Amino acid sequence: MLAAGCGIHLLVMLVLWVVAPADGRAQFAVEPQADTPEEFDAYLVVLSKSTPRDIISAANDFERKWPRSTLCASIYEMELEAYRSLNDSAGAIQAGEKALHAAPNNLAVLAQLAYLIANSSSDPPQLARAEELARTEVEKSKTIKLPRWMSPARWEETQARLGTMAYSALGLVAYKRGNLALAIREMETAMNLTPTPDPTLCYRLGMLYKTSGDTARAIQELQKAAASNDPVLRQLAQRQLKALQP
């Protein structure tokens, strides 16, 4: 749903570190700092890398040298994004789990990891894990206390993007469990949250409508997917439209 790369990582670093204080309401945490100039320099090296494989290599070097660094949570997030861009779901999930272990309430990681697991596995325990992560993101994002530097408009946009990913994960989980009606509701919620139409989401929702027998709405969503710049997705959507409109 969200494009992989430095944009999301910047979003994560600036926005999404949260903690749960005594009143149970999530709030933004202070961003971790390096303990030494050498540690910070090594962190900057990771940030300077532009290709996924270089990011992963530099991140592994950092982890070996500073395994207890508070910056490791950010390093793991960069690894997650790098593996995603390589279409390596297993590597991305492993990096995401490490990121959550280092920063359990990171909303961006919760949403992304939920989607990655739901999209790549049909194993019941894995689907349960994806559902847990997605619902945690949704609930914590509702109660978060915004810092003064975060405008409500900016947070609403961020919350919508992460909510889209979380509800998409819930829709995938429901579909793989055989609950078509719930899958459609969750995907519709994701669609209503997304700031701009997402062709992949349109395709998924169109296919759910097709499976449910709602041809009119299936065609509507598949037509949106067929306008995608992604040639593979466009071809898939066109093929489905041809079957629905002989």
Architecture overview:
This protein has 246 residues and is mainly α. It has a domain of 50 residues. The protein has 12 helices and 2 strands. β1 and β2 form a beta hairpin.
Low-confidence stretches: 1-15, 19-24
Major sheet: size, sense and barrel closure? 2 strands, antiparallel
Order of helices and strands: HEEHHHHHHHHHHH
In one word, what is the shape?
A: elongated
> Given the helix and strand composition, which structural class is it?
mainly alpha
> How helical, in percent, are the residues?
over 70%
Strand order of the largest sheet: 1-2
Number of helices: 12
- Head-to-tail CA distance between termini: 31 Å
Percentage of residues in strands: under 5%
Q: Total number of β-strand segments?
A: 2
Radius of gyration, whole Å: 19 Å
- What average pLDDT do the residues reach? 87
Sequence-ordered SSE layout with sheet pairings:
Layout: H1 6-15, E1 18-19, E2 27-28, H2 37-48, H3 52-65, H4 72-85, H5 89-102, H6 107-120, H7 124-143, H8 152-176, H9 180-193, H10 199-212, H11 215-226, H12 231-244
Antiparallel strand pairs: 1-2
Primary descriptors:
single chain, 246 residues, mainly alpha, two-stranded antiparallel ribbon, 72% helix, 2% strand
Short description:
The chain has twelve helices and two strands; from the N terminus they run αββααααααααααα. By secondary structure, it is an all-alpha fold.
